[in-house]
Specification:
Layout (H helix, E strand, L loop, with lengths): L2 H11 L18 H13 L10 E2 L5 H10 L1 H13 L8 E4 L6 E8 L14 E9 L3 E4 L6 E2 L10 E2 L6 E4 L4 E5 L5 E5 L7 E10 L3
Parallel strand pairs: 1-9
Antiparallel strand pairs: 2-3, 3-11, 4-9, 4-11, 5-8, 5-10, 6-7
Helix pairs in contact: 1-2, 2-3, 3-4
């Protein structure tokens, strides 16, 4: 395999979209060894804390995941422990704080909306971990090069104008979850291509550590 194709493959496997004509969709990491070691770490599952029902979606930035887990293991372990210990289809809808942490978890019974009706966003203080446990939630990830903030940052969200044709769209499944770090500008609850737009999604807010 040629070097260029090899690097592209490593980037995509790690959830690191390269800087190219296709756009920039997450934090770019130039250190190839770090990208590869983070990918292996993520695939190893050492972060699972007994939770085995789902894995990170291919879009998850493996370097960000590794670095944030290493800096804040207690909160991440609490998140995966909560997922391990709860019946995700039966737990009541609503928002709560995980005992002993500042992590909040929202259980939302909701509906997808047509593309363009849900606002884009990113966060600086909190990381979003989103796991759709019922139905299909479509997520959009924005290209940085063709997007720009359209409002002031206010705790803890900022919104964007973007080129719809350059948004990468991904559908959830019960065996994966999405993690959005500060440089993952995203749209949630986009309508999928089926007749069923009803979903149940679990959303965790985890502290981002500089």
């Amino acid at each position: 395999m040629k070097l260029g194709k090899l690097l592209l493959t490593l980037c995509l496997c790690a959830g690191i979209w390269p800087v190219a004509a296709e756009g920039v969709y997450t934090r770019v990491v130039d250190d190839e060894a770090k990208v590869e070691s983070s990918r292996r770490w993520m695939e190893s599952g050492v972060w699972r804390n007994g939770f085995g029902a789902a894995s990170p979606h291919s879009s998850v930035n493996a370097v960000d995941f590794y670095e944030q887990y290493s800096k804040n293991k207690e909160q991440w372990d609490a998140v995966f422990g909560w997922l391990r210990d709860n019946d995700l289809l039966a737990v009541p809808a609503g928002k709560q704080t995980i005992d002993g942490t500042t992590v909040t978890v929202s259980v939302e019974d909701s509906s997808n909306r047509p593309f363009g009706k849900s606002r884009s966003e990113s966060h600086r203080q909190k990381i979003d971990l989103q796991y759709c446990v019922k139905g299909i939630e479509r997520f959009g990830i924005l290209d940085h090069e063709s997007s720009a903030p359209n409002c002031e940052y206010r705790p803890d969200v900022i919104h964007y104008d973007y080129d719809p044709e350059k948004v990468r769209l991904f559908d959830s499944s019960p065996d994966n979850f999405f993690i959005f770090f500060p440089e993952d500008w995203h749209i949630a609850k986009i309508a999928n291509d089926t007749d069923d737009q009803e979903i149940r999604v679990i959303v965790f807010k985890i502290d981002y550590v500089e």
